Structure formats: C-alpha cells, structure tokens
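Minutes, structural biology subgroup

Action item carried over from last meeting: produce the structure token record for Fimbrillin family protein (Bacteroides fragilis). EB confirmed the sequence was re-checked against the source entry. Recorded below for completeness.
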Amino acid sequence: MRITKSILALMAATMTFAACSNDEKITESTPKTVALTVKLPEFGGASSRAIDPETTTGNKVTINGNVTIIARVSQGGAITNTISQAITAGSPSTITVSGAATWIDVEANGDNGTETDNVNTRQGSATSSKVRLFGGAAVTPVGVGGGNATCTPTINPDMARVEVKGSLAGPWTHLNDLKIKGIYINNVKLTRGASSLTRIASAAWGTDYASSGQFEKMFNTDLGAGVGTGVAQIAGGQADGYNFFPQQDLSSPTTKEDVMKKSIHVIMEVEFDKKVGGSGPETGWLNVVALKDNTATNYITDFEAGKVYFIDLADIKDIMDVPVPPVTPDPDPETVSVDLTVSIGQWTVVQVKPEV
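Output recorded by EB:
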C-alpha cells in the first residue's frame, strides 16, 4: 500500500511538473509583435563598377524588392519564422513572430532570378541593389510601459570593393607619356561559397575576360575615351570599381611572394613611352598582386566585407616612372609582381599602395 501511494504521489508530481513545462512552452511560443527598424550604414566613399560618379559620405546601398526577415530562438539558432516583406530603411515595420524568437536576421538584395552568388552578377555601383546586404540583432522585450518588442539590426554589404581613380599625368622623369588602357580583376572568388580563388592564366585571358567568360564583368577596357583607347586619368570625382567576395589568408604571410597567393590581383594594361632606350609607345601589363594599408604599411591579407580598397593612379605613375617600367608581355604571370599601398574606408574606404 505504501508503495502504491508513493507511486501515485510521484505520478501526480510528474504530471504537475509536465503541466508547468507545457504552460511555459505555450507562453514562450505565443506570437509577439516586434517593431523592426532596419539600418543601412553610410558610406565613407565609394563609386561604381563602371566609370560613374564617386559616392559621397551618406550614400547607401539601394534595397530592391522585399527583404527576407528570419526570426530565430537565438543568434544562429533555430528558425521560428521567415517573412518576406517590403521595408523602408530607418522606418519601423511591424511584424509578428513567435514568442520564442529572441534574434532577427535580415537579408536584402538576396539571390533571385537575375542576381546570384556569382561575382559577375553582383557588379554595379556601390549604391546599387546588386550588393547583397545582411545583418541581425537581438529582440528587445516589451518594457514596463507595454507596446511592441523592438529590434534594430544594421545590414551591411557582404562584399568588398576595389576602386581605381586619379591621374597618371606628368610631369614624368623617365617617360614621355603614360596611359592606362584597361583594368582586370583576378585571383578572387567566382562565387560566394567558393573554397578557393579563381585565377585566370595568361593563355586564357582572351576567353575568360570576354562575353560568357569566367570573369566577363570583372574588367573594363573603356576608361573614358572609348574601348581600347588609353587615358592618362579617370575623370575627377569618378572611379572604376569592382565588387568581390571577402577573402582572407589565414597563414599570416609576410612576403609579397606569399601574400600574392591569396590577395586580389589588379592587372592594368598600360601604354608608355620611355625617354631613354625607347622607340615610341610600348604596351605592357602592370601586375598589382599585393596591397598595403596606407595607414599601417602592412600587407592586407584580409579583404573584409563592407570595405572599399582605393587605388590612386598617382601611385601607379610613381611605379611606372622609372628607367625600366616593371611591366610584362603577358598579364598576371607567376613570377613578376608589384605591391601597392592603398587606403581603406567605410562602405569603409581603404586607400592602398600597389606593389609590382
């Protein structure tokens, strides 16, 4: 009898505990209203893939179409709700999510029929909707005064940018003339999820930097004077810019030869006329395969999402204005290289210095 009573008491206690647990789950999962305000970071300066006006501080990426709102039980945790909704950056939007949600991620300009995670389809001005945006924040519960829970995530570009601007114009010490005829981006990820970088070999240059080529949107041969015509400068306030997926070398390289293996390569076709030993205009390839931070003078081994790496053609002029310019007959060979100091800024912009 005592055993029976003990079992009955234990069963009753277990049922009571279970009831309490179920009540808590129901309470937690009761839908709640959240005032969601999505913020877009201002650019510190950037411009477009084509030759377009530079972006000034305060410009932001354009959101095209609905955003995807992902509510989670915790940061990186299980998804409770996925909502597609139009929003206006900076203005509250009221959404209803599970009561269990404590974190909200927001994706804008996501993959669709025309924009995919292929680097070629993500080219456009820094303020265009070609750049995917992503970010998240914790949900702040309803306060004592009532109302809605709140959440204010900042969504950032998930790509980096490199931009070329400025002038090669003289006076020169060792040259009669200097022009740039084309810019090509090499040694970057073809897709966001790629585990390795794609480097186009010299032999494949003509097919991969062409319509339907691997890097069909990652080059420009019209820098303001027509296709194939060299220019001494990119018009003031404008730049030639390219979006690329973040890439990082975790091996902590210290030499240019090691850095270039996982650094973005900016290859320039240049036309120059030497004062001594020349026989008129010559064409060659200047291979910028490593970048240095303008403020720290160290090699950049982590090309971060949301940062713009600015290359000033004045630095290219300094590299080229020597008795024997460091050019090659073929683009991006394995053994010849230049490094350059650049500046970094806020999409973030980074001024950089090139090295060859």
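Discussion: The chain has two domains: 31-157, 160-355.
Next step: EB to file the record with the rest of the batch.
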